[in-house]
Every structure is written in structure tokens, then in C-alpha cells.
Amino acid sequence: MIDEMDRRILSLLQQDARLPNAEIARRVGMAPSATLERLRKLEERGVIQGYEVRIDPRKLGLGLTAFVAVRTQEKQGELDTGERLRQHPNVLEVHHIAGDDCYLVKVRATDTEELGRMLRADFSTIPSVRSTRTTIVLGTLKESSRIPIPEENQVAIA
Hints:
single chain; 158 residues; alpha+beta; Arc Repressor Mutant, subunit A; 33% helix
């Protein structure tokens, strides 16, 4: 189970994953050694899956965001297409979804020309892909990987 102290630590890390262990300990009122032990246990249990840096994609010339709905001919339960999609360097997210389409893919590209090449040369050459439907993002109001941390009575960790 995740207790209140774990939730406080997770909340701090979501705000700034670069916080030193000693600073986390100071903010939650624990000894640094006890805080480090909690962090290790959260990592071992898979609650903390890793630490990443957020980069502004526009600063790297990747100003276009698009969502691509991909319809496949895969048999139910197969995820080969999703595995191939996730390996593409411009793909940020791949979601296996319910409905008419099979996957929802978030991509970044320099412009519409690059996006078109990606769809024609990469996505459509996957043998199981039947069709794609693309939505180009005009503006982003919120984009975050932070998740809400539920209250203690709502959390059960395996």
C-alpha cells in the first residue's frame, strides 16, 4: 500500500524529479536514509517507473503535433502493429483502443510534409495497417505526464 508519506514524496517528485534526496526528506519531515529507502521501495514495486526530462519540442524543430488513429487487420489480441509503431522515433505515445480504430498514436514532426512522409513511408508500409486518420493539433492548452495521486483509501498496489 501507498501511505500518506509515499504520496507526499511522489507529489514532490512529479513537481521536480531532480530534487535531491536530502531536500525531499526535509520537505516531508523524514531522515534522508528513510526517504531513500522509501524511494527504493517505490522503484522496486514499479510505482516509480523512471525519471525523465521535459523538452520543448519546438526548440528542436518539432512544432507539429498530430494524433493518428490507426486501423489494422490484426487478429484480436495481437499487438504487433503497436510494437512497430512504438519503435518509430517521432512517436510519443501508442494506445491500443476500443472502437473502430485499433491504435491512437501521438506523433511530433517538423511540419506537415514530414508528417505526410511519415504516414506514407512508415505507417502505411506496416503490412497490417488498413488505414490511418490524422488530426493535426492547432494549439495545446495542457500537456502533462503528471497523474493525480489518489487518497490513501483509493490506492491498492500489488
